[in-house]
Automatic annotation (TrEMBL):
It comes from the Bacteria. InterPro entries: IrrE_HExxH, Rad_response_metalloprotease. This is Zn-dependent peptidase ImmA, M78 family. It comes from Jhaorihella thermophila. Residues 195-296 form the IrrE N-terminal-like domain.
Length: 384
């Protein structure tokens, strides 16, 4: 029986990298403690199973020391003014998957002579956030009135995504890695990222966040598309310090896009309790109460101490009501949300025409059965 000559420190690194406890793995790998102490070594089969369990390429485990893994795109995430630690395997895999999808779609767009999108990279950090917000609203045809008419935040988010898709932007929303429900994406780690390309700009949104919060993330990442900068973000609506200039600018664009300052001022009512104002404006603009708080501060309706106290209260309230939130819903709608309507339609067309292998299409869509693929084709209007 062939044993794998791996160092205990590489096994410990892989466990730490996967952000799991050795105790959680010991039930599956009975001799894990011996491996970690250097008192034994796994077989090749056991090592392969271990690598799958901790989501690490098995070849990494034979290295003399852990590799330095960094985000393949600019990482703008911060916490208390400090850059965050290395990205998790779940996050890295989603970035790599989206890069593959983007590369494929860019080639598809060139083949079918789709024009470059003029708005990509059309702004700079010196461009007024108010001006850029107006340009985004115009390019997407995403009026405030139409959004306010949506019955729910979910409806407003779907409309927002659909308008971005119609404008040529691939918007992908998922709370898990591919279709693996055991690999949830951590909203505390990241909220979204943007991948810039003239023909295939892509925005990924962490679907574990609330629908209202996803609205802000999408607006924030769209600002990155207009700026022409790929980026990994965890910024919220809070006007806090410690973020890079790009993130502060994108936050301002997002806030103005979703809740224009003039519209906020026009809606303020004298002597209305703050809690009532928050709920009313959040329902009206279909954003989170945190975004409304940010705009009330921007409008001078709150002092900074009042804002800071209210912000913490709202965070606590949101955490409380988010406990026990469940997923579910229509399978095909969920799948289209994860990979975008525009991307799915193009991929199905290319596959049916023989330009793309079914194997590659299944991988990029995250499906395993031909029947599922065909049903997705029907959902996007390609197949009857």
């Amino acid at each position: 029986m062939t044993r794998a000559p791996v160092k205990p420190e590489m096994l410990r690194w892989a466990i730490e990298r996967a952000r799991v406890s050795p105790d959680d793995l010991s039930a599956r790998f009975k001799k894990l403690e011996e491996w970690l102490q250097g008192e034994g070594q796994p077989t090749l089969k056991q090592l392969d199973a271990f690598a799958n369990a901790v989501h690490v390429p098995v070849g990494y485990l034979f290295l003399p020391e852990p590799p330095e893994e960094r985000s393949p795109i600019p990482d703008f995430r911060t916490f208390a003014g400090r850059t965050l630690a290395r990205p998790s395997p779940n996050l890295l895999e989603m970035i790599y998957a989206c890069q593959e999808r983007q590369s494929w779609y860019a080639d598809f767009a060139r083949l079918y002579q789709e024009p470059e999108l003029r708005f990509v990279g059309s702004a700079t950090l010196d461009t007024s956030p108010e001006v850029v917000a107006a340009r985004i609203r115009q390019a997407l045809g995403f009026s405030i009135e139409e959004r306010c008419d949506c019955a729910t935040w979910t409806d407003a988010l779907r409309l927002f995504i659909r308008r971005a898709d119609d404008a040529g932007i691939l918007v992908m929303v998922s709370g898990i890695v591919f279709s693996n429900t055991n690999r949830r994406l951590d909203v505390e780690e990241f909220r979204g990222f943007a991948l810039v390309d003239r023909r295939a700009p892509l925005v990924f949104i962490n679907g574990t966040d609330s629908k209202a919060a996803q609205m802000f993330t999408l607006a924030h990442e769209l600002a990155h598309i207009w700026l022409g900068t790929s980026a990994l973000s965890n910024a919220s609506a809070q006007p806090a310090g410690g973020f890079r200039r790009e993130e502060v600018w994108c936050n301002k664009v997002a806030a103005e896009l979703l809740v224009p300052l003039d519209a906020v001022r026009a809606e303020l009512q004298q002597n209305e309790p703050l809690a009532d104002t928050l709920r009313r404006l959040a329902r009206q603009f279909k954003v989170s109460t945190l975004v409304v708080l940010r705009r009330l501060l921007d409008a001078g309706h709150l002092t900074r101490p009042q804002f800071d106290a209210a912000w913490q209260d709202e965070l606590d309230h949101i955490r409380e009501i988010s406990q026990g939130a469940s997923g579910g819903g229509n399978f095909y709608r969920t799948t289209l949300s994860r990979v975008s309507h525009r991307f799915t339609k193009a991929l199905v067309v290319s596959t049916l025409e023989g330009q793309t292998l079914y194997r590659d299409a299944f991988r990029m869509l995250g499906v395993k059965k031909t029947e599922t693929f065909n049903n997705l084709g029907r959902e996007v209007g390609v197949m009857m």
